[in-house]
Design goal:
This protein has 194 residues and is of the alpha/beta class. It is 26% helix and 15% strand. It contains five helices and seven strands. The strands form two sheets. It has a five-stranded mixed β-sheet with strand order 5-6-4-3-7, sandwiched between helices. Strands 1-2 form a two-stranded antiparallel sheet.
Length: 194
Amino acid sequence: MLPPGGGHRREAGAGRLAGAEPPAGLQASLDGRQVAGLAKGDREMLDGKTVAVVVPAHNEAGQIGIVLDTMPDFVDRIVVVNDNSTDQTAQEVRQRQAEAPPAVAIQPRPQEIEPTLFNMADRVVLEMRREERALYPKHEVEPASPTDRIILINNLENGKVGGAIANGYLWARDHGIDCTAVMAGDAQMDPAEL
């Protein structure tokens, strides 16, 4: 287990921590992920698919850095949902976000479609998505570029873990992510098991 705090940071372009040993099993998964023509730590999609991990976090300032620093390289987006924390969780995520190397560019799906004779079903789906947003906890997505690997969503009220996960899945769906998983913000899950 990694010690909390203590200035552990991801080495530039690497999938491991500087000055700390990865959790058991993580080293093997990082070393085993070699792709022809790429050095270890270089980013590329997993089998051409985009992968996101939703990280619900409520008052996890002491642990969220470990979760972000040990996320495997095949994860294209880490969607942290700060569930109305009263500690420094959001600030810790912003710090890691600023230090993270760029990721594969991902553009959001269009929220409007020009009507034609052939896209009525697509327009109905978009309208249903707009209506269903009222069921999710109110939240704000902090501005991010298309190449930011870490995305921060701030729930404006505590939506509990289910609401936080739902908002993360909503972001992933709206950005065309192919595969989305969940990893808790308290560093109790082994990232090698993704």
